[in-house]
Amino acid sequence: MFEKQIEIPSAEEIVAETPLPKALAAVKAERDALAKDAITGVSDKLLVIVGPCSAHESKPVLEYVRRLGKLNERVKDKLVLIPRIYTNKPRTKGVGYKGMFSQPDPENRENILKGIYTIRDLHIHAIEESGLSGADEMLYPENYAYVEDLLTYVAVGARSSENQLHRLVSSGIELPVGIKNPMGGSIAVALNSVFAAQSPQVFKYHNYQVSTQGNPYAHVVLRGRVDNYGNDIPNYHYETVMRVFRGYADNGELKNPAVVIDANHSNSGKRFHQQIRIVEEVLQNRNYDKDFKKIVKGFMIESFLVEGNQQHDIVFGKSITDPCLGWEDTERLILDIAEKA
Q1: What DSSP designation does 54 have?
Q2: Residue 246's domain is classified under what CATH number?
Q3: Is residue 60 part of a domain?
Q4: Cβ(208)–Cβ(202) below 8 Å
Q5: Which pLDDT value is given to residue 92?
Q6: Could you tell me if residue 83 is inside a domain?
Q7: Contact at 8 Å (CB) between 259 and 244?
């Protein structure tokens, strides 16, 4: 049984009520172009999608993106920094905290309508205060419409990458969409997801039959895999990346071959400090092989003001979901990536 609690206005109504100011829309358009150029190879800049596992509270996230905006001035010739502002991210088991979209106060009950206004306000202020437009995860495809005018990068998680609606909605997005390999790690499935997202589609979306032209910026994100015994198995190593390279080549119909390496999750076994070592290995491999360098377009890094994580929102700027790098390590890592890119 479904008990109706709060009627949610349409995305069109809420976007019209809380529009992105024109000056900030121009900033976002510039950032969109930089991200697309990195994926297509028009630019050799590396994408770095970096920020907290889950954006659970606005003030520390805004402090984080302000710092990232200042750091961007030092690395913008080599990197495209995209703050990770994940507002739909729940705890792994899907019980308890469900992300800012559903639960704008992590210590109180769900209030989705308030959550929508809260995340729009957060994304808009993030652009205003940092000059950087953000990335968010499309955990629920129907929620994307509430933020589609605010983002520069969209992620599809490992548990969603085999879902047909995620693939279809990705085909209508005119931004880079990073589709993670599924939990089992199949490269073939990941490439099939990218193929579906890059293809024209017709489907039902928000009470309409819609058609799309396909998204040429959809690409693979390698996040590691989990075996049948629950063990984390990394897949950022040279051999796996080159399997993806060959998979793109063998398909022949896929556009803009690209891989983004997720340095956390099963690649690090959620040992957040390992992200530094993982990024360093990938950077070394980019220098070793021109094809590896050509296909690896960037990194995802989980990072916040304070390293580690906590169960409840007590320490300002510390994750309440997966553990993250602290700011000092993050700054050093980003500067290192820029130097070696």
Answers
A1: S
A2: 3.20.20.70
A3: yes
A4: no
A5: 57
A6: yes
A7: yes
Q: Where are the beta strands (DSSP E) in 171-241?
A: 177-180, 201-205, 208-212, 218-222, 225-226, 232-233
Pairing of strands 46-51, 201-205: unpaired
Type and span of the H or E element at 153: strand 151-156
β-bridge partners, 82: 49
- The owner of tokens 């085909």 is 171
Structural domain for 91, as ranges: 47-340
Select from 298, 17, 20, 302 the least CA-distant residue to 148: 20
SS3 state at 158: coil
Name residue, tokens 């928000």: 206
Q: Rounded CA gap, 255 and 177, in Å? A: 13
pLDDT at 95: 65
Half-sphere exposure of 238 (CA within 13 A, CB side): 11
The Cα–Cα gap between 335 and 3 comes to 51
Contacts of 83 (CB under 8 A, 6+ apart): 50, 51, 64, 65, 68, 126, 130, 132, 134, 135
Strands 232-233 and 225-226: antiparallel
Is 11 among the domain residues? no
Six token digits for residue 202: 């017709």
Q: Is the pTM of this model over 0.70?
A: yes
Which segments of 171-251 does DSSP mark as H helices, in order?
Answer: 187-198, 238-251
User: If you average pLDDT over residues 106-127, what whole number do you get?
Assistant: 95
3-class SS at 299?
A: strand
Instruction: For 299-319, write each residue's pLDDT tens digit.
Output: 999 999 999 999 999 999 999
Look at residue 16 and tell me if it is in a domain. Answer: no
Q: How far is CA 309 from CA 15, 288, 324, in A?
A: 33, 35, 7
pLDDT at 191: 98
* Number of domains comprising the chain: 1
CB neighbourhood size of 17 (10 A)? 10
Q: How distant, in Å, are the alpha carbons of 200, 219, 230, 265 from that of 216? A: 10, 8, 34, 26
What's the token pair of residue 100? 């800012």
Average pLDDT over residues 118-122: 98
